[in-house]
Structures are given as structure tokens and as C-alpha cells.
Amino acid sequence: MMNVSAELGLLACLILTVGLTLGLGPNQNVEFTFLLPAGRTECFFQTTARNDSMEVEYQVIAGSGLDVGFTLVSPGGFRLVSDFRRSDGIHTVDATEDGDYRLCFDNSFSKLSEKMVFFEVIINSQSSAGGGRDDWADVALAESMVEYRLEDIRATMDTVYQRLERTRQVQTVLRAFEARDRYLLEDNLWRVSFWSCLNLLVMIAVSATQIYSLRRLFDDTKRVHT
Fold first, then answer.
1. How far is CA 37 from the centre of its chain?
2. What gap in Å lies between CA 226 and CA 218, rounded to an integer?
3. 163-176 pLDDT per residue, tens
4. Angle (CA) 208 211 217, round 5°
5. Model confidence band, residue 143 (pLDDT cutoffs 50, 70, 90)
6. Of 40, 68, 83, 189, whose CB count within 10 A is highest?
């Protein structure tokens, strides 16, 4: 049991045992890895503005069964997403109201096994996307210092930024998959080693019993002849 706990600690880059709730702040992109105790439910809050798009992706990296329950609740108390005992999931929702959206991970069905969970929250903000760009556009057009159309430059920059962000997200998810696969390999290696040693001990015991039985048989035969 101590070895399993040590392996769980080495797999995560950041492991924090949190209370019932934890505020994630107004960051648009959030990545978090935490340890979910057995028989507990942990909730996190993400501030989101109306008309923004929220993408939530989670994955159980380690723990018996590799499954948790997940719910996403709006500020008004409406349940937007509900998963039961899944190892991973990706959900995209459009925020219809301002406030803190609650992300809850449930491990109450497991009384003995703790789970290591990785999740990522991506906020595609519509409100903050155009403020600074519009000001830059006004200055550039007023001074007439560029020969190319500003909209084309903006579209190209947006495309490059989106592709870079998507690449970073895919790499993060692949790291989570790698951590889970490594945990499964180490856990299976321990089981194979344990049962191999047990079978070896049984074979040695059976061999010793057979040798002892044969020697007793020959000893009894000698006594009969004498």
C-alpha cells in the first residue's frame, strides 16, 4: 500500500489535497492535477462570463478502477454535465450567465482507493478578444503605416495562436495518457512479480514434498527387506 502511494506521488507534477472547494481564479486556461481521496467529492470553481465558451477535459491518471464521477453546475444551480464512473471525458458548454461554474469530481463510491485526476479548463472569451485589437486597428489605420490589410494579419495571427494553443493542449493530454499508462504498467508489473514468486514458492514446496515422500518410500522398502 505504501508503494502505491509513493508511485502516485511521483506521477504528478503537482499534487495537492484540497478541501471541499478551491477557487481557480479568472485565468482562461487552467491545468491541474490533484489527489482525490477515497469516499470524497472535490469541487473547483471557474469564473466565466456570459457568451464565453468553456471546454473541460479530465482524465483519471492513477487509482484502482481509473474512474470518477464528474458534474458541471452553472452559477444558477443547473447541472450542465453529469458523468458517472468514467476514466476521462471532454465537454464543451456555452456560458449563458456570468458567475462561478462548479466542477465536481466524485469518488464517494470508492471507500478504499484514492484517485489521481488531471483536468484542464479552457475559456474561449469573446469579450476580451476584440478590445485591444480594435484599439490597435484604429491606431494603425489612422497612421496608415502598413501596406497590408490589417484584417488579414489579424486572421493569420489568430490562426497561428489557435494552432499553438491546440498543440499545447494535445501535448498536455498526451502527458496525462502517458502517466496513466506508466501507472498501469507498474501496477501490472507488481502483480506479475507477486504471482510469479508465489507460484515459485508453491513449486518449491511441492518439489520438496515429493522428494521427501520418495525418500520415505525407499526407507520403508529397505526396512521391509532387512
1. 14
2. 13
3. 787 777 777 777 77
4. 140
5. low
6. 68
The pLDDT of residue 72: 93
**CATH fold of 2-185, please?**
Jelly Rolls (2.60.120)
Q: What is the rounded distance in angstroms from the CA atom of residue 96 to the CA atom of residue 74?
A: 9
pLDDT in tens, 47-106: 888 888 888 888 888 888 888 999 999 988 889 989 888 888 888 888 888 889 999 999
Sorted by where each begins, the domain ranges of the chain are: 2-185
Measured CA to CA, the distance from residue 154 to residue 54 in angstroms comes to 23
The predicted-structure confidence for 13-57, as pLDDT tens digits, reads as follows 433 433 333 444 444 678 888 888 988 899 999 888 888 888 888
The whole-angstrom separation of Cα 5 and Cα 57 is 25
Do the beta carbons of residue 38 and residue 110 sit within 8 Å?
A: yes
**Alpha carbon distances (Å) from 83 to 11, 45, 195, 207:** 25, 18, 35, 53
Q: Is residue 76 within 8 Å of 95, Cβ to Cβ?
A: no
β-strand pairing of 21-23 with 41-48: parallel
Buried b (16+ CB within 10 A) or exposed e, 139-159: eeeeeeeeeeeeeeeeeeeee
Instruction: State the Cα–Cα distance between residues 15 and 34, nearest whole angstrom.
Output: 5
Q: How many residues does the chain have?
A: 226
107 in Cβ contact with 41 (< 8 Å): yes
